[in-house]
Amino acid sequence: MKNVFDVGQGSVHFAASDIGWVVGHSFIVYGPLIRGAKAIFFEGKPVVPDAGVMWRVCQQYKVTSLYMAPTGVRVVKKMDYDGELVKNYDVSSVKTFCLVGERCDPDTIHWIHKHFPHVLINDTWWQTETGWPISANLLNLKDFKTVFPTLPGSVTRPVPGYEVKIFDEANHEVPADTLGKVVIKMPLPPAFMLTLWGNDAAFIEKYLAETPGYYTTGDAGVIDSKGYVHIMTRMDDVINTAGHRISTGRLEEVVNDHDSVVESAVIGFNEAVRGECPLAFVILKGSGDELPDDKKAELAKEINAKVR
Questions:
Q1: Can you give the pTM of this predicted structure?
Q2: Residue among 132, 126, 75 at smallest CA distance from 103
Q3: Which of 67, 171, 197, 226 is buried most deeply by CB count within 10 Å?
Q4: Domains defined for the chain, CATH in brackets
């Protein structure tokens, strides 16, 4: 709470999560209260009664630290892309805007930057199994902007306690900027899972056997030449098209960059010649009115051109 989120006495921490998730346990109940901070419990959708409800809570309780899933931000972004509802509330108390739970696409980062220009953005990556962030910014560093500048699409660098590597299928470390499976070198830091309840054998088989000496995260990603970690997708979502291993998360990043698109999901479908081919389901900005066929065809051509 101190080093990653810069939360302590005087902080008002708003983790817009389900209490039943590990985020709810760690970062709504235990963490903020142990640090002497106030914690906000929120139940409901981030767009009910309207897409300004999150910002109303921030104004009402003078929130200093906001922590929510990228999906939550994207739902709000779809309903209020131009940020008109943000302007209805005083959100100047919010100092940090943290993200958790899934990969955050760069377009969503840009949306936050645009409508919350005064906040420090911290995109975190971790798992229920780890109990706390593996890779994140360190918001209590006074000069963190020069040490760890925000890079949209990246969860910055591993925090102390985690040695993260990218392996190929043969468990050899790959060069920088190469997609592979994300692993963490043993021993694992405090608060990490110790086993599966009553089933040590399954714990070893699922998390340790595939990459001896390393914890298998199940995620696919890249470490770039600056040491920044990019979590692209789950390993199950890396598709093989004509011999090329392609991250569906990377494709979604490109599709979402189209001006008309608010969110997308890319999956692989079997094709007789090329193997798995990517298929994108796209959600457009605005009211959701049905597009005429010629507009659909034009949009599909534009998106395909961006992907190519």
A1: 0.79
A2: 126
A3: 67
A4: 12-157 (3.40.50.980), 164-232 (2.30.38.10), 242-307 (3.30.300.30)
